Recover the amino acids of this structure.
């Protein structure tokens, strides 16, 4: 059977060329028009044939990932998949992102001279969670009076967002050149020490980096870090290669190592403050690129295991408390409209695949290619402001239509929490949303802010209580009830 031209793939090849590559003889085949055209333009036919072959390849020559494997998992095997299967990768990226060119922060050419790192890593303990000084440490003397309830049009932007926004997070996905993505790395990689070392050194002058391998953490510690959104369930299950860098100074930084990507850098801020989170994380990210060879493509930007993150690799997310929209039965419609209008992703408290918990939802950008970081942040900010306004309008309607019932539910929840001798987490969780709503409405005898109720939730989470009573014979439900009573008693008018 006649061989077709390697260049056009249409005409029969009449000219042949051979070369030795990796001790293997490779035969090139050209038709005369294609070869002559390339030669006139000063292009080596072999180079063009190799480029076309790579563009049309359906298997990565570096890690062995195939197009069929990708379709099953929707994850590439290594950064080289984007070049080794260029045509296929570009088609997938354009399909999911609607763009094919990176706009935003540029990669930094890596040089060993930039590293300046030490030969050992200092592994420090994670911050301990002691029960004795919980309330003083968490709340201090900051209990303040909540102003009277205002309508949506009476509220300032800060008043609208402070009632709804729990926290803001910027997350950046980064990977190392020439190293398979975590799911394709096997049980051990000699590069792991270099990964951790570079990530720790990048934190110098930025935050107090403390490293723990996942296999060193007990069940309660893992649960606590998941509840605080420092690690994901996916990372918690990676006992062989997983590690986490936490911030001993408690300024919101953390780095997941070998989750879906080699690095998931994060900065979390209380309240509505995506801009500060990004500015701070930008410094760490720049340092990381100076210490390690980060996978970057001139056209596609930062290369990630999942093509939905390629480009900036950034997720700007905000945790929102939306009880009125949910109780009005309008939450699904509102979230669907915002997803369509702003291209947002709506998730539960613990990210992809999780459900809303205590009327809390996570909103983030879904596009990371063809849009720069600051534009992304502005779009998420605009969506959050409008969502907070709609929540306030829904709360107004709720007060008008169900005022007596709403106030009775809030009062009942407050009294139950004040009087309970024992509280399992499900009981606590079912009442805390009403308590927070009462603080927003100003209908409870409490001088507290909604942010303090958020801290109370974290304080009473299953993992926090487990760690507090570790190695002590104490009833967790009794300790939870004592903490709640003490906080609410101190916060009473």
């Amino acid at each position: 059977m006649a061989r077709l031209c390697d260049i056009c793939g249409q005409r029969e090849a009449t000219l042949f060329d051979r070369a030795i590559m990796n001790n293997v003889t490779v035969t090139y085949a050209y038709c005369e028009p294609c070869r002559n055209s390339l030669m006139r333009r000063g292009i080596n036919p072999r180079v063009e044939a190799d480029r076309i072959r790579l563009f049309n390849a359906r298997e990565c020559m570096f890690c062995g990932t195939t197009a069929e494997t990708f379709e099953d998992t929707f994850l590439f095997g290594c950064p080289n998949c984007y070049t080794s299967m260029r045509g296929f990768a570009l088609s997938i990226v354009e399909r999911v992102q609607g763009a094919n060119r990176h706009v935003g922060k540029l990669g930094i050419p890596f040089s060993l001279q930039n590293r300046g790192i030490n030969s050992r890593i200092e592994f420090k303990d994670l911050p301990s969670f002691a029960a004795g000084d919980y309330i003083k440490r968490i709340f201090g003397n900051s209990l303040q009076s909540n102003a009277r309830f205002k309508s949506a049009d009476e509220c300032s932007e800060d008043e609208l967002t402070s009632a709804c926004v729990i926290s803001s997070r910027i997350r950046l996905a980064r990977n190392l050149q020439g190293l398979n993505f975590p799911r394709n790395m096997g049980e051990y990689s000699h590069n792991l020490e270099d990964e951790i070392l570079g990530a720790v050194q990048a934190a110098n002058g930025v935050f107090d980096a403390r490293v723990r391998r996942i296999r060193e953490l007990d069940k309660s510690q893992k649960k606590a870090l998941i509840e605080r959104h420092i690690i994901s369930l996916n990372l918690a299950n990676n006992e062989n290669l997983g590690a986490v860098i936490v911030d001993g100074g408690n300024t919101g930084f953390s780095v997941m190592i070998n989750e879906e990507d080699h690095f998931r850098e994060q900065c979390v801020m209380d309240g509505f403050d995506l801009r500060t989170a990004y500015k701070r994380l930008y410094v760490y990210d720049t340092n990381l690129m100076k210490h390690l060879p980060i996978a970057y493509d001139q056209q596609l930007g930062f290369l990630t295991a999942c093509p939905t993150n390629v480009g900036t690799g950034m997720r700007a997310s905000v945790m929102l408390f939306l009880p009125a929209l949910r109780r009005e039965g309008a939450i699904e419609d509102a979230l669907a409209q915002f997803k369509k209008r702003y291209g947002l992703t709506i998730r539960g408290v613990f990210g992809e695949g999780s459900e809303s918990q205590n009327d809390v939802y996570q909103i983030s950008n879904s596009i990371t290619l063809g849009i720069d970081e600051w534009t992304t942040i502005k779009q998420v900010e605009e969506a959050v402001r409008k969502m907070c306004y709609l929540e306030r309008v829904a709360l107004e309607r709720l007060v008008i239509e169900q005022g007596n019932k709403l106030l009775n539910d809030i009062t009942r929840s407050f009294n139950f929490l004040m009087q309970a001798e024992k509280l399992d987490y499900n009981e606590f969780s079912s009442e805390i949303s009403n308590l927070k709503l009462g603080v927003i409405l100003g209908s409870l005898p409490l001088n507290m802010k909604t942010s303090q109720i958020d801290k109370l939730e974290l304080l009473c989470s299953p993992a926090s209580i487990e760690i507090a009573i570790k190695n002590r014979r104490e009833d967790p439900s009794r300790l939870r009830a004592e903490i709640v009573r003490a906080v609410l008693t101190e916060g009473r008018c």
About this structure: The longest helix spans residues 373-419. Confidence is low (pLDDT under 50) at residues 115-147. The longest strand covers residues 165-174.
